Amino acid sequence: MTKPPKSKPLLRDADKPVRSRPRKPRDPTQPNLPLDPMPARIEPCLALLKSKPPKGREWVYEIKWDGYRLAVHIEPTGVRILTRGGHDWTPRFPTIEQAAKQLPVATAILDGEAVVLDEQGRSDFGLLQQSLGGRGGTKTSRNSVLFAFDLLYFDGHDLTRMDLSERRHILEDLMEGATGAIRISEEIDADGGQLLASACEHGLEGIIAKRRDAPYRSGRAGDWLKIKCLQSDSFFVVGYEKSGAARGQIGSLLLAARTGNDLVYVGSVGAGFKERDVLELRNMMDKITRKTPALEYNGQRKAVVWLQPTLIAEIEYRAWTDDGKLRHASYKGLREVQDNAAVCEIE
Fold first, then answer.
1. CB of 116 within 8 A of CB of 131?
2. To which protein family does this belong (predicted)?
C-alpha cells in the first residue's frame, strides 16, 4: 500500500505553522438555486509557467502534482473519468472510479491530478506511467491517487462562475475526511517564496499559485500560475543517436520544440532512462523511422536514426544554453496522446 504524502514538514517552519484558512459554516438559509444542465465536458483551466511566485493576499498556493490531469464526472448513470484531451479513461483508474462513487453527492465534476506516490509521498510521473503499462499501454492503475483541487459542478449547479474561494469551500465540505483514492489537494495560505523553497527542499516538482477571487476559466488565462523547482517541458523526439555500448543501442534522443509551424532542434537527452524505458522506446521508434530529418539540422552527431515527430517526451532540465539548447536534460517519460500534452514553443 502506498504511503500517504508526508506533507506536514512542508506546512510549518521553525516558528509557526502554515495552514489553510479555517472554513466557515455553510449558511442553512441560503436559497435554493435553479438547476444547471450538467456539461458533457469542461475544457480545463491551465497554469502559466512563471519563474517566481506572485506576491499579494489575492494569491493562494498548492503543491504541484506530477501526473495526469483528469476530470471526474459523477453522474446518475455512473462515473466518467476524462483526460485533459477529453478521452474516456474510466477503465484505467478503477480505484478512483470506486472512490468517486462513494462520495456523498449525486452529480459533480472534480478537477484534479492522478498520481502515483513514491515511498516519500512524492508524486512520480515514471511510476504512474509504469502502473498504466507505458505509453500506449492498456493496464489499469490500481495504486494511483487523484488529488482533487477544484469542483466545477455540484448537485445540479454550475460552479465555474463562482470565485475559487467559494468553490474550494464546497469542495472541502465534500472531501472532508477522504483518505482513499481521491483526496483533496491541500490549499496552503503562505508566503509563496518560502513555500517554493520548502517544496524544492523536499524534492517536490514545484507549486501552483491561484487567484482567490477568480472564476474557473478554460485555457491559460493567468488565474493559475506554476512555479517549478526544476524546469520541465514536452518535446518531440525527432531521432536517436546509436550507441553499441548502450542498452537497446540508444545513446541519446534528439529533441525538437515548436517555433510557429516549424520544428527547431533543441539538443538531446541521454540521462534518466530506465531499462524498461529503453526497450519500450526502441520498439516504438523502429516503427516510425525516416530517411531524412523532419527539421533543419546542422549538428555533428553520427549514426543518427531519424524519426517521424510523433513521440512526445517529458524532459526535465536545468536551463537553456545561449544557442537555444537544453542544459542538463533528463528523460522523465513519454506523454500519452490522450493527455493532450502541449509541446514546448519557443521564439
1. yes
2. Belongs to the ATP-dependent DNA ligase family.
β-strand partners of 12: 17
List pLDDT tens digits, range 6-41: 444 554 454 554 555 555 665 666 666 678 999 999
How big, in percent rounded to 5, are the helix, strand and coil portions of the chain? 15, 35, 50
- Name beta bridge partners: 312: 236
At 244, list the grid cell.
553499441
Q: Which residues are catalytic?
A: 64
Q: What pairs with residue 257 in β-bridges?
A: 264
Instruction: Give the chain's domains with CATH numbers.
Output: 8-20+43-228 (3.30.470.30), 231-339 (2.40.50.140)
Tens of pLDDT, residues 62-95: 999 999 999 999 999 999 999 999 999 999 999 9
The reported pTM is: 0.72
Count of beta carbons in the 10 Å neighbourhood of residue 287 = 9
Nearest to 231 by CA among 329, 307, 163: 329
3-state secondary structure (DSSP) of residue 115? strand
75-79 long-range contacts (CB < 8 A, ≥24 apart) are 75/38, 75/107, 76/106, 76/107
